Amino acid sequence: MTTHPQVQLIFGAGGIGEGTITHAWTTSEQTSELLDVLKELQITELDSAASSPPGSPRVSERLLGESRAAGKGFVIDTKIERTAISGGLSGVAIDSSLKKSLELLDVKQCNILYAHFPDPNTPVEESARAFDNHYRAGLFKEVHPQLTITFWASNNFVAWLMQSLLRASERMVASLQET
């Protein structure tokens, strides 16, 4: 008999809060009710973002924090705030965005930390260094069912930029191993 791996569903929390395209679960009470339903369905990972919901940044994170999602057993992924100006993935911007996300989510650590959008004006080494510093400080981690894997992720990146970022990360790892 063939066995199939169990599928892990992740709930996209971008619809929590009232924004330009969303109008669902606009209060902490409604968000708590949603979390109860998700728990019944055994969906315990939430994919949030500082930019969510669209048009109302950080409302999703605030409502998840107010409804005590982490205290109810949910793990929460989040994404660095998308900024309209260059430098959105500078070390300072990553520091600021992650600090605010953790505060609003009412957690000390998120599960996966994403670079939501590329920033061609910030050297990839600077972004990689900032993510690495926060990982080493224990501010984000991801645990896979079979292995323990800790990483940060990206979203909406073109292939050449992702390749550049991976090369920068590899160089950082190599330099750390030499010391």
From TrEMBL:
> Under the GO molecular function aspect, what terms does this record hold?
oxidoreductase activity
**Domain NADP-dependent oxidoreductase: from-to ranges:** 9-143
InterPro entries, per database record = NAD(P)_OxRdtase_dom_sf, NADP_OxRdtase_dom
> Could you tell me the keywords of this UniProt record?
Oxidoreductase
Superkingdom, natural source: Eukaryota
Question: One Pfam family for this entry, by name?
Answer: Aldo_ket_red
This protein's name: NADP-dependent oxidoreductase domain-containing protein
Q: Which organism is it from?
A: Talaromyces amestolkiae
Native organism taxonomy: Eukaryota, Fungi, Dikarya, Ascomycota, Pezizomycotina
